[in-house]
Specification:
alpha+beta; two-stranded antiparallel sheet
């Protein structure tokens, strides 16, 4: 069984699965007002700029891990 190339959902820090579409809508709203506190990311409300930074860190980590896998296959 092969793994899907793209994820169907993201797991936020409190373990909740969030669809890609929902995450995209949320990030779009957060980018407009990053100084507000947003509930649902963790067990407490966190500022939008923290959510954006964590999302970017996770995305970079995923890209780097994929590059390592591709490198090791060659």
């Amino acid at each position: 069984m092969s793994k899907a190339l793209y994820p169907k959902y993201f797991i936020n820090p409190n373990g909740r699965a969030v669809s890609v579409g929902t995450m995209a809508k949320a990030l779009k709203a957060i980018r407009k007002k990053p100084d507000l506190d947003y509930p649902g990311w963790d067990w407490f409300s966190v500022p939008g700029y923290f959510i954006l930074a964590e999302f970017k860190r996770g995305l970079n980590d995923r890209i780097n891990r994929r590059a390592l896998i591709t490198e090791s296959k060659t």
